[in-house]
Amino acid sequence: MPRYPFALVAALLLPVGSVGHAQAAQSAPASAATSAPTAAALAHPQVELKTSQGDIVIELFPDKAPKTVANFLAYVKSGFYDGTVFHRVIPGFLIQGGLYTRQLQPKRTLPPIPDEANNGLSNLRGTVAAARGPDPDSATAQFFINVVDNPRLDYVGNQSGMTWGYAVFAKVVKGMDVVDKIDNLPTGPQGPFIGDVPRPLVVIEDAKVIGEAAHPVAEPVSPITGQVPASAPAASKQPAAKP
Q1: What is the CATH number of domain 42-209?
Q2: What does the domain layout of the chain look like in residue ranges?
Q3: 25 confidence band (pLDDT: 50, 70, 90)
Q4: Residues 6 or more apart from 224 whose CB is under 8 A from it?
Q5: Averaged pLDDT, 81-101
Q6: pLDDT digits over 5-15, tens only?
Q7: Among 73-77, 108-112, 222-226, which is the least confidently predicted range?
């Protein structure tokens, strides 16, 4: 596995200043006749990402990262991820997306959420984690999928953003071959980024909770604060730091 300087890894995942909004929707209540296996499935909901390179299914861990999962589901159910791209691919490390359009313009997001990296889950191959900036509590819509075991991205202490780690909240249960296919795409500079943009861009055409229809509402509501977020200026450009 390639070695990446940890100080650079800690700052590489999320551009500082990404702001905006999406909307939340309520899950349909389970039927009284729900079977035990179905109840277990609801405890760990699954989300299907239909991408231009194939489909990826991820299983969420609300028991381990409740705020991160609630935040991710709010974006999924609002349709926020539809038409966004995997804008960063670092071969043998991770693939990252969830914020930028096909034109590599950032979308407006919900307010950032508290970091839940200290939940006992490790950044192993196939796990999904929340991307963030130097501040541990700065994650919004972006997420990344670990292509290899990346334990150096795990929580080791609360001394600084570099030791805090990245919150794992899900894992790929189907479509890891698609993740590997994306990981093997050629990359280069494009738009505001100095490198690591896959060619062609990988588009998330549709994101949905399996077995549940999306019910977008008129006004976006934060799953963390319960408030409609205020408008804010556009996101700054991606930091130049990279491994």
Answers
A1: 2.40.100.10
A2: 42-209
A3: very low
A4: 67, 70, 71, 110, 111, 113, 114
A5: 97
A6: 333 344 445 44
A7: 222-226
Of 200, 199, 144, 198, the C-alpha closest to 172 is: 144
Per the CB < 8 A criterion, the answer to whether 60 and 170 are in contact is: yes
Distance CA 162, CA 120 (A): 17
Residue predicted with more confidence, 143 or 6: 143
Residue 239 has pLDDT above 80, yes or no: no
* Alpha carbon distance 73, 205 (integer Å): 16
pLDDT of residue 213: 58
> For residue 236, how far is the Cα from the chain centroid?
19
Q: In this structure, what are the phi and psi dihedrals at residue 209, rounded to the nearest 5 degrees? A: -75, 125
Give DSSP secondary structure letters for 47-111.
Answer: EEEEETTEEEEEEE-TTT-HHHHHHHHHHHHHTTTTTEEEEEEETTTEEEEEEEETT-PBPP-PP
Task: List CB contacts of 59: < 8 A, sequence separation 6 or more.
Answer: 44, 45, 46, 170, 171, 173
CB of 114 within 8 A of CB of 69? no
Pair of tokens at residue 194: 């100095």
- Reduced to 3 states, what is the DSSP secondary structure of residue 85? strand
Count of C-beta atoms within a 10 Å radius of residue 29: 8
**pTM for this predicted structure:** 0.75
Instruction: Measure the N-to-C terminal CA separation of the chain; round to a whole number of Å.
Output: 13
CA angle, 70 as apex, 99 and 38 as ends, to 5°? 120
Question: Whose CA is closest to 155, among 142, 141, 168, 165?
Answer: 165
Q: Would you state the structure tokens that stand for residue 92, as one six-digit string?
A: 């043998």
What local confidence, expressed as pLDDT, does residue 242 receive? 35
